[in-house]
Amino acid sequence: MMSHTIFITGGASGIGFGIAENLAKDGHHVVLADINEQAATDAAKRLTDQHLKASAIAVDVTDAEAVAALPRNLGNLNIDILINNAGIQHVSRLEEFPAQKWQQLIDIMLVAPALLTQAFLPGMRERNFGRIINVGSIHSLVASPYKSAYVSAKHGLLGFAKTLALEVAEANITVNTLCPAYVKTPLVEKQIADQAKENGISEDEVVNEIMLKPMPKKAFITIEELAGTARFLISDAARNITAQTMVLDGGWTAR
């Protein structure tokens, strides 16, 4: 496989860092983008200490001007692959959901992928190669209570990917969305605690009765599975796979 330069948002931790580490081991150069500059720098160092190619950049993905300036600020690095991964969660019934927080989730998980794609797409068109991989969720396809903003953003991501795939179809650029069921990350660990509080049950009951119950396979999705799917989407074998929703859900949506 050719070596590419990959830009990953939310790259300092969780799913973003896990995918970055796996793809860096394939010989790609990964650019870890995160709102927390120190976290991004530390994460990149963890990779370079393993003799992998990595660099860090701080960016607030909701800042349109900062995002538009990224290609310029990256200097000689041409981004071949964009992985829109940055995300946050807020669990609350709608009546108590702060309006600003609702807006923030939409800005980070739906508007930002559009802004980032807008920034890197001209270069991809120029070089006639690009892979845009959005990290969606099982909640791009189904809903759970108390997550109205998150579910709305993740559903919207699928519509964005399909539309964009049509717009770039004449070039060697594909746009796809990874939709995993629960992945054990710090974000999900926090959700377990929040859901326990909201539902008045124990954390073990949240895992077994809310998170894993809808999954016939009864297992959390691993970072390696997500990275492996991204690896496939980057490959030549997937050059005609575009506008697709890659669902890693242990059978959840078969019911």
Helix content: 40-55%
Q: CATH class of the largest domain, please?
A: Alpha Beta
Given as residue ranges, the uncertain stretches (5+ residues, pLDDT < 50) are none
Shape: globular
Tally of helical segments: 9
Pfam family, one: adh_short
GO molecular function: 3-hydroxybutyrate dehydrogenase activity
Family: Belongs to the short-chain dehydrogenases/reductases (SDR) family.
InterPro entries: 3-OHbutyrate_DH, NAD(P)-bd_dom_sf, Sc_DH/Rdtase_CS, SDR, SDR_fam
Descriptive report:
It is a single chain. The chain is an alpha/beta fold and 255 residues long. The protein has two domains: 5-180 and 222-248, NAD(P)-binding Rossmann-like Domain (Rossmann fold); 184-220, no CATH class. The protein has nine helices and seven strands. It has helices at 14-24, 37-48, 64-68, 70-73, 99-127, 148-167, 186-199, 203-211, 223-234, and strands at residues 5-9, 29-34, 54-58, 81-84, 130-135, 173-180, 245-248. The chain has a seven-stranded parallel sheet, with helices on both faces. Helix 7 (186-199) packs across helix 8 (203-211). The chain is globular and about 55 Å long. The mean pLDDT is 96. One of its GO terms (biological process) is monocarboxylic acid metabolic process.
Primary descriptors:
9 helices, 15% strand, seven-stranded parallel β-sheet, 255 residues, alpha/beta, Rossmann fold
Topology (elements, then pairings):
Layout: E1 5-9, H1 14-24, E2 29-34, H2 37-48, E3 54-58, H3 64-68, H4 70-73, E4 81-84, H5 99-127, E5 130-135, H6 148-167, E6 173-180, H7 186-199, H8 203-211, H9 223-234, E7 245-248
Parallel strand pairs: 1-2, 1-4, 2-3, 4-5, 5-6, 6-7
Helix pairs in contact: 1-9, 5-6, 7-8
EC number: 1.1.1.30
GO molecular function: 3-hydroxybutyrate dehydrogenase activity
Pfam families: adh_short
